[in-house]
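Researcher: Next entry in the queue.
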Amino acid sequence: MEKKGIVSEIATGLPAWAKGIIAVGVVGGIGFAIYKLTQKGGALLKPDEAKKDVKKLEEIGQQPTYMEAQYVGFADAIYAARGCNNVFGTNEDAMYNVFRKMVNDLDVAKLIEKFGKRRLCFSFTEGNLGGFLNDDLDQDEIAIINNILKSKGIKYQF
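Model: Structure for this entry, 158 residues:
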């Protein structure tokens, strides 16, 4: 007697449309799981949450160190350093240099806000800055970024 798996036993006798629904559900579940895995990390503020933090920090008197366009440039530099289109891989030093330029919490909140959501390399999903960094960098590299921020008294950690 041939042994069947539980899925085979359940699917036996189902009409084709029901099998299709099950297949779509399984594929959708796997896609959702992959999406959630790309959203791991510490300070994973979403761009809209970062916008709220920016407002709160400005209300308590923090001043941005740079012009708005410079934060966009910093976000672009981090994205370019990732190496999605670079055969030599990620330029971690370029990323570290951006974080070295952050002076206060407001700077990091603006960086997160301006980074927004961007396509993760070799993926169809998008991630915010925290997800993007955690998708590419290992724990030691994330620790370097966190130590740079911590040394400046910045609360954000990735």
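Model: The chain has two domains: 6-36, 38-151.
Researcher: Noted, moving on.
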